[in-house]
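Sat 14:20. Reprocessing the chain from the morning session after the first attempt stalled halfway. Input below, unchanged.
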Amino acid sequence: MLRVVSVAVPVPALGCLSYTVPDSLPVPGVGARVLVPLGARVLTGCVVEQEVEATSGQTGALKPLIGLLDESPFLPADVVRLAVWVSSYYACGIGEAVSAAMPPKALLASERRAQLTGAGRVALTSRRRKAHYELLAALADGASHSLSQLERTVATGSRGALH
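Finished this time. Tokens:
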């Protein structure tokens, strides 16, 4: 069975978005903060509904959650319900209403990420400056890495290659 949650993201006039929950993550509770992809960005969203039924045509288009920020709900379910009501009564986006209910800095900023491309794989085998080689080697596992994670991984002298 496909595990799907409805998530509010802090984007004006945008309704709830549905995301699948990977098997590696528990199903987050209502009010939990999650990291979700939206276009080229990664945003912090808030779960407003668990176990949403996805239509058969929709399931192929759903993207998975990237991560779970809270083991237990960050916002009480009553506050989430109030935010849903506020969004419908005042005709604002659900994400805006949920954001207004959260304390300052509860929503993480978008995070820039890097991933090794085909050209990067070629560059990894060619002669490069040590800084570039260390950066490309850190990306060689094929996964997407945040820039802050890469800064911690590569040597201090190689950090200039990131920017």
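The mean pLDDT is 81.
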